[in-house]
Batch of 2 targets.
Target 1
Amino acid sequence: MLDDLKDKFHDECGIFGIYLNHPRHDSEAAQTTFYGLYALQHRGQESAGIAVSDLKRIQLHKGMGLASEVFSPEIIARLQGQIAVGHVRYSTTGESGAVNAQPLVFHYLNGMVALAHNGNLINTKELRANLSAYGSVFQTTTDTEVVANLMARYSKDHMEDALAKCMIDMKGAYSLIIMTEDRLVGIRDPLGIRPLCLGEMQGSYILASESASLDTVGAKFVRDIKPGEIVVIDKTGLKSIQAVHSGRTAHCIFEYIYFARPDSTMDGINVYQARKAMGRQLAREADIGGDLVIAVPDSGTAAALGYAEESGLPFEEGLIKKRYVGRTFIQPTQAIRELGVKLKLNAVHEVVRDKRVIMVDDSIVRGTTSKNIVKMLREAGAKEVHMVVASPPTCHPCYYGIDTSQREELIANTMSTEEIARHIGADSLHYISMEGMVNALMPKTDDFCTACFSGEYPIA
Ligand code: SF4
């Protein structure tokens, strides 16, 4: 894997589901789900899968790779039915493999079920042990199978009651889309850590990780699924059950910093505007003399625009991101790996030469990429390179479904800001303050999980 891929936190999954009331053709649900996954591809590139139901049985196709590699028009045409659920997954080393690709389809007392899961349970070990004691057998290493077995355990109950019981047992961060032969169900964890929203398209309902995927398929955003809520969609419409009341929320703040698309709106906050507000706040806090502001594209762009606006300095495209870096480079040869960041980015010499450059990025995880980019800017003739970061130092790993480096690999865990600046070769380094970051979003600090910065985990 490219070093710079390891140098970001990674969301682990994107999920999308649709219940079509009046499909225009047999594979419309699968086709719409494919485009939904395509729009969510940034949330996971290792595997993709779609399950469909024609109200009688569930069919599944999944495989390793991008949605466009896993699904051909012929495969989509075979996936016939009016309900569909899809999943894209980013997996950590050791967990990668077709067996862990989702959705997971299984039989239980009441029929067939397809499950797509985004997040991470923190009591999986305990749940597995309990379930195994009751005779459950596990084939994968995913939390999703634990959820499936929990559902099976409560299968004598009415489905909504069974799911409410599962939610009491499950501890952690999760958004789930569950499809039975005749229903589509969305569930969000009691603190709303992982996102899930509801859309509507010509009287049909859609569930998705991000609102941008609703725009892509031509659906209207209706609302976010509430923390602790279960929504059940069937031929009679939509039913909402507030299964768990926690009295507080802990939305993952990293969605706004890096994971989500800027054109998505989550829990009432547009991601682009949030990043821009963080950039403006950063400019107020850092106050560095410079000639121009550049972004590490794409996730640093909105914050860089905010920084430029607030500081009065011009924003320039000093780094150009190469598009079309396909999967060829996901597992490069040693020779290609040595080219490192140059495969993805290049400096515009004419923009940065002899300039005091303020470079804005969303986060620093291990520092490898930042070091390479600073070097690239200096080689392109930049007089000074000041790095500003639109998130506080990331010192703590995430246990809620985000692939972070080990604690000891997080550079901010072992070095001071001055040491990191020296390590990456920057003239100075400035992080946004925790208070500044949260205030840039809204003044209620208890609304977000900020554990990877603060070490204060919302679930013990
Ligand atoms: S620890 Fe960080 S990445 Fe994980 S849920 Fe909390 S804010 Fe998001």
Note: The chain has a mean pLDDT of 90.
Target 2
Amino acid sequence: MSILKIKIGLEIHVTINTQSKLFCSCSTKQSSPNTQVCPVCLGHPGSKPVTNKEAVKKIILIAKALNCELREELIFSRKSYFYPDLSKNYQITQFEEPIGENGFFESKGKIRIKRVHLEEDPASITRTNKTLIDYNRSGTPLAEIVTEPDITSSLQARAFMKKLLRDLQYLEVFNGEDVIKADVNVSVEKSGFKRVEVKNVTGFKDIQSVIEHEVRRQQKEEVVENETRGWDAAKRKTYSMRKKETEADYAYIYEPDIPIIDVSKFLGVKLPKLSDERIKDFIEKGVDPVDADIICMRKDVADFFEKTTSEPKITSYWVRRELLRVLEDNAVEETFLDAKEFSKLIELVEKKTLNENIAKEILELMRDKKIDVKKYVEKNNLKTLNDDNLIEETVKRVLKENQKAVEDYKSGEEKALQYLVGQDMKLTKGKAHPKKTNEMILERIE
Ligand SMILES: [Zn+2]
């Protein structure tokens, strides 16, 4: 079987997490429709845009993290088109001279980055039996990231998106809960790599589905043409929209209302450690690579892990399994979880002072209120029973009260042993040392 040759390029739109919009002081916070608006973002005649410095700094961080060549001047253009989501009839974007070009990003191979630029988001449109427009979104800053068609499979595209989103979190330029949108272009060798672009795909799972769908469709079809398609997320298929328009159709002009901004003083900004570097650090501390990868999926979790003081490999196990479980969708900062107390909890388990199941329950409490672990364990008398005499006493009692289970075990039912240990735990409220209890029960039966 010959290997299918596929070329995939992505044009990704990411909302940059600034306090205010790109060219006015309207807030970017969620609010009821059409309340975060002003003459600038509504495009009233005579209103003048003023560029948001925070957005400029953040687009530079993004372009740097994607290893782009950077321009010292920020130059905007107008992209003219008529559509109700754009009250000015043009979008302020960067065209001829994007802030970043010719970069690359490593994700299961080197993906070249064609350009990175800053632009404003149009309003959002909801269609019911009417068309509803919310201009709150109009003018919020977007980063557009365009790759060369270097991606060769849907899995690689997904891995790329995942890593990109992760690093944008590390740069603190993107809120994890914001949706990501992309135009996806897919071409196959069979058609002579005719370029088909699918517009406005939301979320990286759908991006993967679009690629898989398009590859199947283009392999099957007799003639594939250069065209723009849409994605019907409900029917899980693409549909033809128009034969590809060219950028010239948008009649770009340089934006006359915004002066050229000298950004050279921002270009020296230092990048924080990104996910690959964090993963490497953790592996060097002895953490299993798979665990390191999972911990670094979330910056808040990686930061938390870094602050722990207990043995890294054991701690990583607890972070990956238990911390992520109790956090659910909450950010660490939204809870009472504290890395020092978390480490103490793990150390108590490691010293066999505390049974694992009790520790897991305490961890759940630690999410919801401030707890001094050692005091809490003392006060509630939760220490593991290590006293052989005490354990022997409860074991004797359990065996006496559960004769049937003892007989079952003797006649080969392994499960009966688990039951007996369980009964013992019940009696000691989970505090008996599990291994000792197990051994003592076996000793006595045999
Ligand atoms: Zn505004």
Note: The CA atoms of residues 89 and 390 lie 81 Å apart.
